[in-house]
Design goal:
Number of helices of chain A: 9
Oligomer: homodimer
Strand order of the largest sheet of chain A: 9-11-8-12-10-13-14
Largest sheet of chain A: 7 strands, mixed
Order of helices and strands of chain A: HHEEEEHEHEEEHHEHEHEHEEE
CATH superfamily of the largest domain in chain A: PurM-like C-terminal domain
Largest interface: A-B, 98 and 98 residues
Chain lengths: 351, 351
Amino acid sequence: MSDPAPFEPACPFPIENYPQVLLAHGGGGRLMHQLIQRMIVPAFKNPWLEQQHDASIFELGGQRLAFTTDSYVVRPMFFPGGDLGSLAVHGTVNDLAMAGARPLYLSAGLIIEEGVAMESLWRILASMQRAATAAGVQIITGDTKVVDRGKGDGIFINTAGIGVVEQTVSIAPASIKPGDAVLVSGDLGRHGMAIMAVREGLEFESSIESDSAPLAGPVRALLDAGVEVHCLRDITRGGLTSVLNELAEASGFPIHVEEARMPVREDVRVACEILGFDPLQVACEGRMVGFVPEPEVERALKIWSGIEVTAGAVRIGEVGQGGAPRVILKSTIGAQRILDMGSGEQLPRIC
Amino acid sequence: MSDPAPFEPACPFPIENYPQVLLAHGGGGRLMHQLIQRMIVPAFKNPWLEQQHDASIFELGGQRLAFTTDSYVVRPMFFPGGDLGSLAVHGTVNDLAMAGARPLYLSAGLIIEEGVAMESLWRILASMQRAATAAGVQIITGDTKVVDRGKGDGIFINTAGIGVVEQTVSIAPASIKPGDAVLVSGDLGRHGMAIMAVREGLEFESSIESDSAPLAGPVRALLDAGVEVHCLRDITRGGLTSVLNELAEASGFPIHVEEARMPVREDVRVACEILGFDPLQVACEGRMVGFVPEPEVERALKIWSGIEVTAGAVRIGEVGQGGAPRVILKSTIGAQRILDMGSGEQLPRIC
């Protein structure tokens, strides 16, 4: 057919090395990071995307608003501790919260495969609404597309979200400073292991439930108490390892963490061993890292410990002064090693 | 697996009649309308969705903002007159414009099937950026997911958009009044026929190119000139017929239109005849209907005639006073018939 390709600018992504998109390009690891940094950000070149933040902030009429989007393609659609619908609400609410925004409104874009049971669709929609109500947001606009059987996979959901940033300080990777303490808000790796246990048909003594939850409440609690927060990031694809690597790169500082301080539940640790995963690379959907200056650590942890979803918050390390912007892990036996981002091949379609 | 279904409210959609999602549930016709009105709107029950508008308007700090979302799953990804990328920008820009908003910021959520050529991805992204620049919007936040081969179909794009509503009047279905003239901004059915011609491998004497284009400019031109505009709606899935039926229902008034006034290009009319389509049910992606009071008709048409994308604007009918909220077509031989919404089965994945 007649399709003269219009002029394209040169692509900074090394297409010769990766002529086709791989599953790992969506896996939250090194390959995805490269695709975003060398293809997507350059394509849309603007200062917002270059901030590498979960949500972009813009000003309008003297107000600061946050805007974010995420698509959700997790399989299976229903899993212990949640489902595609609640995940699609929590994930976007959390991306807004990570920018210090109060989440207000969501959109819902559904891409449904022909043949999906209407009953399943209704359950997913009802779950979205319950999650939205619990998180204090409204789903005010939507779209529905249907694709032919075999051209989709059940239901995919995109949610975009708008929030308002009420404080004047910027909670962002660029605000991270040497000496900041690094906190995590609870135990790691449960969402990923809940999904993998279902996929692999594994039965553990206790069921591992996803940690999927909205985090706007505990963020608001810190801000309302006047805690000085430098940066927040929810831990999703690629796990803690990807988040810390991204933030080391974006801030320009090394991050030092200790293996012995990492909160991982025993059943999750066992499941990870059986399936050959590193819990620090496994996705959460209701956990975040927080960067606060040393004098604020005690107060921040006290506030979080009083809120159910962050009751397991601990300090795992601190931001270093000099050296390459890497993540350095002190192992339980005292050795230091660089914690590299995984390629992203291990856990496809976890969110 | 352990999956105790949480309590769901009763679903007002007749699941017993449609236990599974059909392709037609995304086709822009009667079945899609029913799915939205009886399942999706009730699930998220709130006044915004009940307005049945292309974009939802909310107030924040004394400003009125518009928010909208659409996913794009068109096949093929490249077609005469456009591609998936430009379509994904134009469609969302247009939804904002239809609410009288000035489009400002877009999000981009990509769902990519494993194996897509990187080169195609880059072409689509570059096309999005060109379209965004031309429409005066910025793509400030994004997300990338990859699904396994055979679980998607090339690239799906969701774009959500934010705009600001600067005028005080409400451009919405509820503002339609008896006696309003009904305008269309240009010739009908080109986008759908461009896609179908490619799919069917048809060769016409002249290539039919999609009308895909941003409409924010011609909307702004009316508003800047102070033209009183009651309602605008872009003509997409289901064509003019679906749009007019939706607006008759939403406004509560009948809409009378004349077949002889419908602008359909000769090659599009021929293609429709060959393929068995009604041009009034075929999608456009750069056309809108406008409802203006009688005294404003001449001025509105004059303004639009001076802008390339709306140069073919004409008046096709008017809003009636009483009777059922239906669409009545006066045929070329003078007979009147009710123009019913199609089921939506004819043109899957047109946008």
